[in-house]
């Protein structure tokens, strides 16, 4: 069995855990005013995390997107096409939730393939 690698955060979770052929990305969020800025920030943070383990954003095979407001779904779908090729988007589940941080509008978690 290969070694499991953790990239820790200052909190009680890792930003990514690499286990075997997969990297499991925990919550990534953006900051700032407005949904677009936060969604772009979350996707850029995922890209940055993956670069830290030498993986491209295109290695993402599955994401779960948590929205505070379902009305932001069309904007999120448009923004995803700025980061993923239209015919190679990751599998995705989108849901709504209330966040602990009241200013948070979106969080993204996912799974990337490491080979």
Keywords for this structure?
35% strand, 6-stranded mixed β-sheet, 60s Ribosomal Protein L30, Chain: A, alpha+beta, 115 residues, 2 helices
What does this structure look like?
The chain has helices spanning 35-51, 73-80; strands at 5-8, 14-19, 22-29, 60-67, 91-96, 106-113. It is α+β, with helices and mostly antiparallel strands. The chain has one domain (5-113): RutC-like (60s Ribosomal Protein L30, Chain: A), CATH 3.30.1330. Helix 1 runs parallel beside helix 2 (73-80).
Number of strands: 6
Count of alpha and pi helical runs: 2
Which structural class do you get from the secondary structure elements?
Answer: alpha+beta
Backbone CA Rg: 14 Å
- Helix fraction by DSSP (H/I, runs of at least 4): 10-25%
Give the helix/strand layout.
Layout: E1 5-8, E2 14-19, E3 22-29, H1 35-51, E4 60-67, H2 73-80, E5 91-96, E6 106-113
Parallel strand pairs: 4-5
Antiparallel strand pairs: 1-2, 2-3, 3-6, 4-6
Helix pairs in contact: 1-2
Quick structural summary:
The protein is of the alpha+beta class and 115 residues long.
């Amino acid at each position: 069995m290969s070694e499991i690698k953790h990239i820790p955060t200052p909190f009680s979770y890792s930003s990514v855990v690499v286990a075997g052929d997969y990297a499991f990305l925990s919550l990534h969020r953006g900051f700032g005013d407005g949904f677009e800025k936060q969604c772009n920030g979350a996707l850029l943070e995922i890209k940055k995390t993956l670069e830290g383990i030498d993986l491209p954003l295109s290695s993402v095979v599955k994401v779960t997107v948590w929205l505070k407001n379902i009305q932001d779904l069309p904007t999120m779908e448009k923004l995803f096409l700025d980061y993923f090729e239209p015919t190679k988007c990751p599998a995705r589940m989108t849901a709504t939730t209330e966040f602990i941080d009241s200013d948070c509008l979106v969080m993204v978690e996912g799974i990337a393939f490491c080979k």
